[in-house]
Design a protein that fits this description.
Elements (H helix, E strand, L loop, with lengths): L2 H5 L9 H15 L9 H21 L2 H11 L13 H19 L3 H28 L7 H25 L4
């Protein structure tokens, strides 16, 4: 079952987080296996399945990046891990950030570190701005392939930037 259907909410990149949490708690209470101890084996199995589904759905829908990945996978826009290509021009841009990262690895310099952190944040902000309108106004019934392709590129590029940020964090003072 589709996670959005399970929670009875529309497919969207921007969910009502408070509403999602409320629905999660209600379903947690409804399907908690402890409430089915006297039920039949089939009913216990079904409660466990639905409880697990509830936990998995909440974990995905409550996280922006996981939710985005889930929608892109459901729409069959995102290929399997490792089979998606990041545009070459973006990778060339990233050399500006990767070069100081290599320098920091061998010789930490706080000024270079701070500049690199700032560049990375600027890239992330610019990247999000390029798709903010799609994210804010996405409706499953009016979505088009071009919009989903732009979100996919954002997702892939943002993941790349997150990996750089993780590497950069290793050098943090």
């Amino acid at each position: 079952m589709n996670y959005f259907e399970f929670y009875e909410i529309p497919v969207t990149f921007k969910v009502d987080e408070a509403g999602l949490r409320t629905k999660f708690y209600a379903l947690s209470k409804k399907y908690h296996p402890d409430f089915f101890t006297l039920a039949t084996d089939d009913e216990q199995s079904e409660a466990l399945r639905l409880s697990t589904l509830n936990n998995e759905a909440y974990k995905v829908l409550n996280d922006f990046d996981k939710r985005m990945k889930y929608i892109l996978q459901q729409k069959e826009v995102l290929a399997e891990e490792g089979k998606n290509e990041i545009p070459q021009d973006f990778l060339m841009e990233m050399m500006e950030i990767n070069e100081p990262l290599m320098e920091l690895q061998f010789d930490f310099d706080e000024k270079t570190y701070n500049k690199t952190v700032q560049q990375l944040q600027e890239k992330k902000d610019t990247l999000y701005t390029s798709i903010a309108n799609i994210i804010e106004n996405y409706a499953d019934d009016t979505a088009n392939a071009d919009a989903l392709e732009k979100v996919k590129l954002y997702y892939l590029k943002n993941r790349y930037l997150l990996r750089i940020a993780e590497n950069l964090d290793k050098f943090a003072p």
